[in-house]
Write a structure and sequence with these properties.
312 residues, mainly alpha, two-stranded antiparallel sheet, two-stranded antiparallel ribbon, 6 helices, 3% strand, elongated
């Protein structure tokens, strides 16, 4: 029997020339902001805002690496699960050679393969939970780019924080550049672009997880999952934090591909998919079709150049 490995996908299409990022392209002049604060307060706000942005983007870079690790582990566990399942599925027709005379050899081998599948299911689920956690951290970080005045501006000790104590304080310094060219709003827009890619990919990964956790042979009992089922306790609360759970439909948002407008996707799980379908699932996991790696690198490079920090 052929052992399945995820096939290397074709290289993602190159971004068009007009998508090559120069951070100045997202000029803060296109984003309306209140008038900047008094120059005396700005001189104190700007260093605090610079420190905060460096910290938040360092976190974003770290979360990207955590995603890559969790996704790689998940792919490995998914591949092991599929191979163990296929071995059990075709056990009855396997040629065992000299082992065929051993009593109950097929039954014992099938039992061991089933236990392996249970192990790899737990591992795959753990990797998926790690990816959910990473995306939620990304969402939280993307919303923490601003620096708000803490306490009255007349205080002798001026401090800043990541939450607003004054409705008139926008936390963006009135739209002035934080480093050389770009305002807080520009960094927020870039961070949201990153988050959206990983959010979409997480949802697609969930579709694959639901499919893979449901596979099982005719002789084994496996919980067959539906898209609307929680795959672990508290999952829907976690998905709500990254806007992947719909309170209207009471189920996770339907998976889709980047730049695909359809909001409706038929999600059906096959308990005994063919070897070809499983190969497609593993290759899709590997491809990460919703994450434009070139664009991600462009964003981190441009932000890093502005801050004089290497995020890659």
């Amino acid at each position: 029997m052929e052992t399945l490995e995820p096939q290397s996908p074709y290289s993602s299409s190159q971004s068009s020339s007009n998508s090559n990022l120069k951070i100045e392209n997202l000029s803060s002049s296109s984003i309306l902001s209140p008038q900047p604060p008094p120059s005396s307060l700005f001189r104190l706000w700007r260093p605090a805002a610079q420190r905060n942005l460096r910290n938040q983007w360092s976190k974003m870079a770290s979360y990207r690496q955590q995603w890559l690790s969790a996704s790689s582990n998940g792919r490995s566990h998914a591949t092991s699960l599929v191979n163990s399942y296929l071995s059990e599925r075709y056990m009855a027709s396997m040629e065992l050679g000299v082992l065929s005379d051993m009593p109950d050899i097929r039954k014992k081998a099938s039992c061991k393969l089933f236990k392996q599948q249970e192990h790899y299911r737990r591992k795959l689920l753990s990797s998926y939970k790690d990816m959910v956690t990473v995306v939620n951290y990304m969402v939280s970080t993307s919303r923490s780019m601003r620096s708000f005045l803490k306490g009255p501006s007349s205080s002798p000790l001026v401090q800043f924080c990541s939450y607003s104590e004054d409705t008139n304080d926008t936390g963006d310094g009135g739209g002035i550049p934080v480093f050389a060219f770009s305002s807080i709003a520009v960094y927020e827009k870039l961070a949201e672009e990153l988050v959206q890619m990983f959010r979409l990919e997480l949802n697609l990964k969930r579709l694959l997880v639901v499919e893979l956790l449901s596979i099982g042979s005719e002789t084994t009992q496996v919980n067959e999952l539906c898209w609307s089922d929680e795959v672990y306790p508290g999952e829907f609360d976690d998905l709500s934090l990254c806007d992947l759970y719909s309170r209207e439909t009471c189920e996770p948002v339907s998976p889709r591909l980047k730049d695909w407008n359809s909001d409706k996707t038929a999600v059906q799980c096959n308990r005994q998919p063919s070897q070809e379908i499983l190969q497609v699932a593993l290759t899709t996991w590997l491809a990460e079709v919703n994450i434009d790696t070139q664009r991600v690198n462009e964003i981190f490079t441009a932000v890093g150049e502005e801050m004089h920090v290497n995020f890659l």
